[in-house]
Amino acid sequence: MPLGFLKSVRDQASRSANAGKPAAGSGGGQALPERATVLSDVETLGIGMFWATDAQGRLSFLSQRALDDLGFTAEELFGKPVSQVFTDIDPEPGAPQQRAIGFKIKAHSRIEEHVIAVTAAKARSAECATRWWRLNGRPMTDAAGNFLGYRGSAVDITSQYAHEMQVARQSQVDELTGLANRRKLGERLTATLAAFRASQRSCALMMLDLDRFKHVNDTMGHPAGDELLKQVAERLKSIVKDAGEVGRLGGDEFQVLLPDMDDRGTLGELANRIVQSLSQPYQINGRRAIIGTSVGIAIAPYDGVTADELTRAADMALYAAKDSRGGTFCFFTTELRDAASKSAQLGERLRDAVDRGELSLAYQPLVDPSNNEVRCFEALLRWHDGEEGAISPADFIPVAENDDLILRIGEMALRQACSDAMQWPETIHVAVNVSAKQFVRPGFRKTVATALEVSGLPPQRLELEITESVFVGDLETVDLVFRDLKKLGVRLALDDFGTGYSSLAYLKNGHFDKIKIDQSFVRGCTENGDINPAIITAIVALAKALGMETVAEGVEAMDELELVRDRGADLVQGYVYSPAISQEQVQGALAEGRMKVTPSGPPRHRAERISIFRKVGLIHEDHYYDVILRNLSKTGARINGLAGVPVGTDVVLDLGHGQLVVSKVVNASENSQGLKFETPLISDGSGGFMTRHRISPYSLAEAGIPLAALGAGAFPLAKWREANKSSPKFVQLELSVPNH
Ligand code: C2E
Ligand code: CA
Ligand code: CA
Fold first, then answer.
1. Is 380 in the pocket of ligand 1 (CB under 6 A)?
2. Which of 103, 465, 557, 687 has a CA-to-CA distance to 650 between 20 and 30 Å?
3. Which ligand is nearest to the CA of 434?
4. Domain count, the chain
5. Is the CB of 433 under 6 A from ligand 1?
6. Which of 364, 380, 462, 495 for a ligand 1 pocket mutation test, highest count of atoms within 8 Å of Cβ?
7. Residue 641 shares a structural domain with residue 492
8. What does the alpha-carbon distance between residue 581 and residue 419 come to, in Å, rounded to a whole number?
9. Residue 34: CB partners within 8 Å, gap ≥ 6?
10. Do residue 543 and residue 663 come from a single domain?
11. Residue 556 in contact with ligand 1 by CB distance below 6 A
């Protein structure tokens, strides 16, 4: 209703403003007095207001009605810089972005439909202290083009504006994707947890953050970014279906709320499907883009009882997933709580180490298995920290990738490796790992060219090892970097093939000279029923068809060597030939004319065991013992610390964090026992194992322990343990956890 009328008021205002413009001449055919009455009616009826400034931008006129409303006299306001009277509003979520009013006035720009705030002098309550006006105004100039000041109109939109803002605040949907928004998700989570607490139900929370979304946004533009987010939302909905509620928190962050879900096996599978699905290529305006995603998972009441606690836990798990390499999921554990600060400390120390030149390179040979001749050495970073001892590049490279440190480290590795390789026979190549972050930075080609130039290494002797994670963001840009590098003449190897984003699409573009089959396919490939040999055969065949060399990584046992050789791998890298050795050792070996390495290792692969040496608990009958966990696999464990435990004993292993594993002693020596688990553990998504279910804080609460998220170690069982003081059946030995 009022819009048309307001428009006419505005037109009126600008016409009247024009009337003030000397060059524009007189005010049309209308009689001046009549016009003055109409305008004054407009003012007094509160339909519109007028304002004007002088050439210095100071307020020189404001309708009486407006002054009355604000509770100011003309003397109080006139003469003040108008940008002090009309101030910018706090940008509310959902409000359109506009340039600062002060900026426009200084620039003498036209003011159109600009919403500003005006502070009233005598407010009856705090709420009406601020009025919102929609401003229009024109800069006036004289015939010579000199700025004379503004003439303009204003409409008070306070009530409408406040309403709109309230609507925006109360809105439950994310406009772009149609998913639940942050507000709704927060309310839903709080309500769900409160309700579930009473009925002792569980609820999982997944936090998602897209990897490299910013890159797509920056290189392909915001509309493309928006389109991508919509497609991500669709994929998420189609995976989660009715199992839970998907929402967008803002930016590239999504959340999934999964009621009645505490099976970490099922959750891991779901997270894995999400990671796989979101990392498939997207079509956006005829261009292809690839992103990845990281997922953090926390489960109420185990990891948090309140919405806040659970959200923080899921967030921490998300950071951990992102830190590990992206494209993965991670469950919350109490250890993660201080991981963030630890990583910050590591970053500091790493920076110092780089400054002091404490990083060095070690070289691991890549060997032709048909004749055991060394063809190449891969340069691997080594850092010996004074406090912590040797720190693995798998731990510090991700930290370096958080900032520009990776560029310095990468450049140093390139230069050092090229100059070291100059000391080797000409037939031997050198391979250098390149982080995806480093690869996509402008200037990477230059870094490589300089390293070659300074060292004098022929380009074809340098191989750059790149992982699939470079294929995210704008693929056109990535393509350009590849072409630049090819022009330089260096060789390119696709590292860790088969992990992470796993798409064969980028093999076909012919960028790579070599594929490195990831260790995870090689290790244990000789075990019965393993499908990995078939995968290795397929990768080798594919590589051959596309004219690429293959390398089998992480070969440790003799039977693995035999298998990968039989399956046609061109090169083998692994402990079966040699771990990484120093440049001195390389030169020493080469000086003796030894270009050959004799393989040696265990005859057969042994089921993967993680050596952990940590204190855990063991429950037998009504006794709780402390034991040391020596080895952990999916199906069993080896423990130390008890004597006199017969084979066949049923026990419960307490792995901490509420993880109780029903087990049987299957073999026993003097002070060490092998346990077999009743149900196997599941993979935690980052190389470790965990139980599918945990002891519920609800059941602990029933036993009189206050309801709280699970703590580390065996804490919740401490009470139970105190209460049970009958004589133990086994001898508890003194425990010491070896340092390593
Ligand atoms: P990668 O590129 O997959 O390197 C191979 C890793 O597997 C090395 O671990 C190597 O020591 C290990 N390895 C080789 N053979 C065997 C085996 O038979 N059994 C087992 N268990 N392991 C084996 P390392 O040196 O800890 O490096 C870990 C990762 O750190 C590398 O994985 C690479 O991604 C990264 N990295 C190392 N140096 C650099 C570097 O200069 N720049 C960048 N960006 N990343 C690097
Ligand atoms: Ca590598
Ligand atoms: Ca590798």
1. yes
2. 687
3. 1
4. 4
5. yes
6. 380
7. no
8. 16
9. none
10. no
11. yes
